[in-house]
Amino acid sequence: MTRERRATITDVARAAGVATSTVSRAFTRPQRVNAATREHVLRVADELGYVPNPAARAMGTGRTQTLALLVPDLTNPFFSGIITGAEQAAARAGRTLVVADTQESPEREQHLLTSLDPAVDGFVVAASRLPDDALREAAARSRIVLLNRATPGLPAVVADYESGTRQVVEHLASLGHRELVFLGGPVGSWSGARRWAGLQRACADLGVQAVRWGPYSPTLAGGPGAADAALAAGARAVVCHNDMLAIGVLRRLAERGVAVPADISVVGFDDIFGADFCHPPLTTLAERTRDAGSAAVGLLISAETDGVTALPTELRVRASSGPPRS
Amino acid sequence: MTRERRATITDVARAAGVATSTVSRAFTRPQRVNAATREHVLRVADELGYVPNPAARAMGTGRTQTLALLVPDLTNPFFSGIITGAEQAAARAGRTLVVADTQESPEREQHLLTSLDPAVDGFVVAASRLPDDALREAAARSRIVLLNRATPGLPAVVADYESGTRQVVEHLASLGHRELVFLGGPVGSWSGARRWAGLQRACADLGVQAVRWGPYSPTLAGGPGAADAALAAGARAVVCHNDMLAIGVLRRLAERGVAVPADISVVGFDDIFGADFCHPPLTTLAERTRDAGSAAVGLLISAETDGVTALPTELRVRASSGPPRS
DNA sequence: GTGAAAGCGCTAACAT
DNA sequence: ATGTTAGCGCTTTCAC
To answer: Which residue, A71, A73, A74, A76, is CA-closest to A274?
Structure first.
């Protein structure tokens, strides 16, 4: 099968009887070319099936009109919302989005940041696992917006964990809980640290005892270990690092015949797909992931160089939390 | 903040005291350059933080080392597996993957196929909504591999629906069901058509009555309408276009106090994230989406031009299906 | 084995 | 308003 050679700007120029620069302008600065000529050029281009070659365009301008989104785990539905939001915002702005999976690996994240650099105009890095100085160094080369991670000097979009964790604690306290266990995720997780810090502050204010256990894997697979530990210690309310872990915990508790929420209340973070139809439906702190994804892309495009955008969160109370059985 | 200018091949050549062509060769044809020179060049390049510019490379060669994946709906977890598999296969092969959402729109799919064309070396188009001739036309310009869609002349990766649907019908028949209702998805859906065709054949062979209703939206939102219709007609077993719809149906049945599976059995397709922890856990035909994604990318890279790869499916029997209450 | 030089398709001065 | 021309960073003949 022989593929047709793509029409170039030169082909269009020749067919339209104008210079290549006119064709170029007709596409990039329509107002800077006579209306009639523009019409004509555009029509000829269309007939020839001409589509500008972004690689060639990138060479002259240095801008690729492409943005990269780095996520730690493509299979985690939490990031689906972010991807969707980012993709929409990029598409709206006429940019192409490249999505890459860092597989929770700082090395791979670092590698992508350098190898993709010449190919893109900037990065949205979600839940970065990189140390602050590595991020700042990368930011000296490329435009970077952080998502659910913040470090001084870099623009970031984060969930408002301060208010969010307070909502969680108030909810549990109002149900009569006086102590809670935080089932923590990876030690290096920035959002995990913020969640725990917020919970602690809120607990202190509201007279609730809080302890942190873990780390547990922030996946369904982390559930059994976390659930067993909570059970062994007689916890009556657990707050999990994220929904994946929380759902894993729920499943393990069901296996072991433990009643939720009568025996133990379970709360998660993220409100991922599935949190409302697992059993029992999960009480969780919802983040506006679509908005976060599109906000991050927006910052990237507007060339923001600093500042933290905090997005509101919302506690979704479902059946996994309730008053402790006395 | 002034960003450092990226080192170019010229910088490396100058610093290493060789010609640019030697630097180029050191990267692209390591064996065609003296080992010592190569070492030296590579070391200098590393010191300068040189990373080849893919856009420039693309101009000379015409290959961008970038592949595009088009999906109808990024928020559908079914496609998460495909994205993951495709991304892994692309990364393994040193390619970059671009993911775009067609939003179930043939027009947008068409548009992406042409506008992205010069930017990528080929497309994986998942669950294409385009008519056969539009696909063939696109394939004359770009390299295309279809996923869960097939049309003569184009390479494709599909699930083995023939065997899969038979497993579904055998399962229901073995439980004592003598009739089933297929709650169909979008009319234009190729996989929907194959699923229905397979169900019909299997039903004919096994003496089961089958009727098709719909179309319903293949989303959670499609559930209520589909469930209500099934209920009104007294269906005892429904097979849904996909898991999203099936879970929507499940939720609606729960709302209406209908017992699953005693009153009605529900079966889905895809085994998406959540299918095993919704309530009751959903019996569904699992497709190997990760494998499908990576297989499609593999075909793209190996420049396959035709042939259908059928991937095995597996029925996951869970609690949503059972014998009808007599 | 290595260098010199000609493009790849496009944009952006600079002319006209 | 439009044409001319010089690159952008890299690969690739073609010489040496």
So the answer is: A76
Q: The CATH number of A9-61 is which of 3.90.550.10, 1.10.1240.10, 3.40.1190.10, 1.10.260.40?
A: 1.10.260.40
- Superfamily of A66-158+290-311 according to CATH: Response regulator (3.40.50.2300)
- pLDDT one digit per residue (tens) for chain A, 326 residues: 456 788 999 999 999 999 999 999 999 999 999 999 999 999 999 999 999 999 999 998 989 999 999 999 888 889 999 999 999 999 999 999 998 989 889 999 999 999 999 999 999 999 999 999 999 999 999 999 999 999 999 999 999 999 999 999 999 999 999 999 999 999 989 999 999 999 999 999 999 999 999 899 999 999 999 999 999 999 999 999 999 999 999 999 999 999 999 999 999 999 999 999 999 999 999 999 999 999 999 999 999 889 999 999 999 999 999 999 98
Fold agreement (B66-158+290-311, B161-288): yes
Q: How far is the CA of A57 from the C1' of D7 (A)?
A: 13
Cβ of residue A24 lies below 7 Å from strand C: yes
* Distance from residue A43's CA to nucleotide D2's C1', rounded to whole Å: 18
The structure tokens listed for B37 are 């020179």
- In chain A, where the domains are located: 9-61, 66-158+290-311, 161-288
Tell me how far CA of residue B200 lies from CA of A198, A255, B168, B249, B279, in angstroms: 56, 38, 11, 22, 28
Q: For residue A116, which residues of chain B lie inside 8 Å, CB to CB?
A: 96
pTM for the model stands at 0.90
Between chains, do B98 and A100 touch, taking CB under 8 Å as contact? Answer: no
Strand ranges in A1-143 using DSSP code E only, listed in sequence order: 66-71, 96-101, 122-126
CA separation for the pair A70, A226 (Å, rounded): 28
C-alpha to C-alpha distance for A58 and A51, rounded to whole angstroms: 14
Q: Does domain B161-288 sit in CATH 3.40.50.2300?
A: yes
Quick check: A49 and B117 CB within 8 A? no
Question: Element (H or E) spanning B267, and its range?
Answer: strand B265-270
Residues of A in contact with B108 (CB under 8 A): none
Instruction: Give residues lining strand D (CB < 7 Å).
Output: A 17-22, 25, 32-34, 36-38, 56, 59-60; B 6, 8-10, 20-21, 24-25, 27-28, 50, 52-53, 56-57, 59-61
Tell the residue number behind the tokens 């989104």, with chain if given: A69
